[in-house]
Amino acid sequence: MPLDGQTQTPDRHLRLEGVRNFRDMGGYRGHGGRPVAWGRLFRSGRLSGLTGGDRARVGALGLDLVVDFRQRSECELEPSAWAPGAAPRTENLEIVPGNPEGLFDADGTARTAGFMEHLYQVLALEHAGAYRAMFAHILAIPDARVLLHCAAGKDRTGLGSALLLLALGVSPEDAMEDYLLTSRFLDVDTEMDAVLAVAPHLLKPPMTREGIRPMFEVRRSYLESAFRAMDPVGAYLEGRLGLGPDALGALRERYLGA
With the C-alpha atoms ordered 74, 16, 157, 249, is the resulting torsion angle positive or negative? Predict the structure, then answer.
């Protein structure tokens, strides 16, 4: 079902065997009413589960640049499963997520949603350097086909994708709709199981599965918190991310259709 009459098509979600939440960011209406080009900008979760069939499908996209926001330990635990010698150029822009020890008050009361809203402000303000580098790497490769990803493809990648869409002139409302699509393509319990398998400390008392569940969800309030931290967006894009008129013009020329 279309989100605003023109953004959702059956091709947005790439159904892969071993990778979740792999999506095309094309189709949203950008600067001057021009649509974001299809087949140029993608987002996903971890790539450690790529199967042979997945590699063929992803290989057909002709990716020029993969931006991986995971921290080094995540990359070592779950390295991307490209075929030998076939990995696209990959830039690791490490973003270390917030400390989950802060999820609970002294009396054990969970405050996970508030923690996540604060985390999104931290991503926007304290990790602006990673997103600034993301744009620099994209602009350094003419007409690059780009994939952004982290572990689940929802928080670090969620903000990076929203920033890319905003830079292209997509409205905050449509950038939000793209962010919320993760809830359709990423099962919370499956993702929680995958993370707990490598990070069981997240359930250290007084933490409980239900208590940490909001960490694995996408909620409008999370990205709204980042948007508030970036207000006004135009000044944030130029001042924090280095996207002046020339850089914005170059991005829009490359990634917006007629």
Answer: positive
